[in-house]
Known about the structure:
The complex is a heterodimer of chains A (249) and B (215).
Chain A: H1 8-52, H2 69-79, E1 80-86, E2 91-93, H3 102-110, E3 117-124, E4 127-137, E5 142-149, E6 155-162, H4 176-179, E7 188-189, E8 192-193, E9 197-199, E10 214-216, H5 222-246
Chain B: H1 6-16, H2 29-34, H3 39-62, H4 72-94, H5 96-103, H6 106-110, H7 113-121, H8 128-158, E1 160-161, E2 164-165, H9 191-207
Antiparallel strand pairs in B: 1-2
Helix pairs in contact in B: 1-8, 3-4, 3-8, 4-5, 4-7, 8-9
InterPro entries (chain B): NqrD (IPR011292), NqrDE/RnfAE (IPR003667)
GO molecular function (chain B): oxidoreductase activity, acting on NAD(P)H, quinone or similar compound as acceptor
GO cellular component, one term (chain B): plasma membrane
Amino acid sequence: MAMNTxxxxxxxxxxxxxxxxxxxxxxxxxxxxxxxxxxxERFEKQQxxxxxxGVNQNEGDGDVxxxxxxxxxxxxxxxxxxxLVWDGTEAVQKENAYLIDVQKALADAKSxxxxxxxxLIGEKDGEKYYIIPMYxxxxxxxxxxxxSLDENMEVKGVFFDxxxxxxxxxxxxxxxxxxxxxxxxxxxxxxxxxxxxxxKGNNDPLNNDKEDNAVDALAGATITGNGIAAMIKESxxxxxxxxxxxxxx
Amino acid sequence: xxxxxxxxxxxxxxxxxxxxxxxxxxxxxCSALAITAELKASVxxxxxxxxxxxxxxxxxxxxxxxxxxxxxxxxxLVVVATLVIVVDQVLKAFAYDLSKTLxxxxxxxxxxxxxxxxxxxxxxxxxxxxxxxDGIGNALGYGVILVIVGFFRELLGxxxxxxxxxxxxxxxxxxxxxxGYENNGFMIIPPAALIVVGIIIWVQRSxxxxxxxxx
Lengths: 249, 215
C-alpha cells in the first residue's frame, strides 16, 4: 500500500483524524471518571478542613495523616457544626458552603462584586474553631489552604496545599514541619490584623516565639513562602469584619 | 536461548552506560535539576517517564509509516500529552493520593526532551518491539541518574533519605549533628544538581576515555 504521506491534503486529514481520536479518548475518559474524581475531591476538601481544626491522625513526628476517606464524611458532619457564607456584612447558613469555589469567591469579593465567602465553624472538645479558606499564588501555580482560629485570634491549625510548587522545596508547604509552626501564632499585632509572615532569618527554627507574627521560611522556597504570607493576609482582610464580631480580646 | 539477542540487549544497556541520555547526550537536564532535591520525587519521576516512554515509543513506532513528516513533532507531542493525561485521570479516579504526588510532574514529563528525542531518533525508524526496548532503556538510564542525584542532594542537603532522618536530628542535635555536622543548604537548590551531574559526567568520562569529545 503506497500512500503519499507528503501531500498537504493527507497532512490535513491526518491531523483532523488525530484530533478526533485523541479528543474522544480524553472526553470519554473524563466523563466516565468524573463522578469518582469529584467524590475524591470532595473527600479531600473535607479531610483538609478537618486537618486545619486538628482532626487528623498525626502521630508523633510522622507524616501528615488525614482522617481516612472511609470515615471522613461522618467525621465532617460530626465536627463541623455550622457552614456559613459571609457576604461582607452578614454571615448566613448555607448547605455545603465548603464546596464553594474559593478562588472565584475571593476574586469577586476583592473586585467589589457580590460574593459568598465560605466560612465554617467546627467544634471539638467544647472549643469552637473558625475555619477560613484561603487561596493565593506561589511560585509556579496556585496555592490554597484553610486556617482555623479561636475567639482570641490565635491559630489553632492550618492546612496548605499547592498545585505545582517545586518538589522538595516549595512543595514542602504541605508538610508537618512547616504547617505545625503556625499553631499558637496570633494573627493580631496590637489589635491590627497583621497575619503571619513567612520569614527568612527568623532565627527561630523551633518556633518558640509565638508573639512575633512570623514562622521560619523554607530554604529555597522564598516566593512560595511569601505567597503563603500574602494569602493569609488577604483572607484575613476579607473576613475581618466577621472576625471582629467574634473576637473576645 | 537468551531472552534478548545481543543487539536487543544493547538497546537497554547502552543508555544505562555509554550512551546515557543525561550524562552523554545531555538531554533532560531541566527535570534533572528541578525535581531531584529529594529521593522520592526522583523515583516517582523515573517511574512516570519509564511508563510514558515505553508506551509512547511503541505507539509512535506503530504509526510511524502513516505520520506525515511535516507535522511529526506535533504528533509526537500529542501522543506524549495524551498518555500523561490518561495516566493522571485514571490515577485521580482510582489512586487519588498517588495522583497528587504525580500532578507536579505532568508538565515536566510532557516537555522532557529525552522522550521527544527518542520518538524522533528511534521510534520513527524502528519496529515496535525494538522501540519498546529502546524506550525502557533510555528511561532507565534517565532514572538512574535522577536517583543518584536525588540520593546525594537529599542526603547532604536535608540529612534524610525518602524523608527518613538517616544522619540524626539536626534540631535536637543527635547522631552526626552532635559532633558538629551541618546540612549543606546549597544542596537543596537547583544549581547543586548541576554540580552533582557534572561530577557524574566527570567520573564516567575518566573511567572511559573513549567518551571524551574532541575539543
